[in-house]
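Weekly modeling sync, notes
Attendees: S.R. (lead), two postdocs, one rotation student

Agenda item 3: backlog of single-chain predictions. S.R. asked that every request posted to the team notebook include the full sequence so nobody has to chase files. The rotation student volunteered to paste the first one in as an example of the format we agreed on. Action items at the bottom.

Example entry:
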Amino acid sequence: MVALQIRDVPEDVRQTLSECAAARGQSLQSFLLHLVTAEAGRARNLTLLERFADRRDGSRLAPREVAAALDTARADRLVSLAIDHEAGRTE
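Predicted structure, as returned to the notebook:
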């Protein structure tokens, strides 16, 4: 493992970070390692998302929009099945 060192950290910032660590029951080192690891993970995720940004397959809808579109399609399908059933047609 590599050791990182941050210089010139203001005392109030160090104190705040220490308090955050203590509130989570962690040492300052483990708290900061968690923060650095999480940030690196976000950076990797953003890089991956950027690789796929120009793709045209898939959906550009937000999750709520997908759910609404599915609900509409299901309702339309039920109406279609009911009309077919009334007309004596089956699939």
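Discussion: group reviewed the output briefly. Helices lie at 11-23, 28-51, 63-86.
Action items: rotation student to repeat for the remaining queue; S.R. to check formatting next week.
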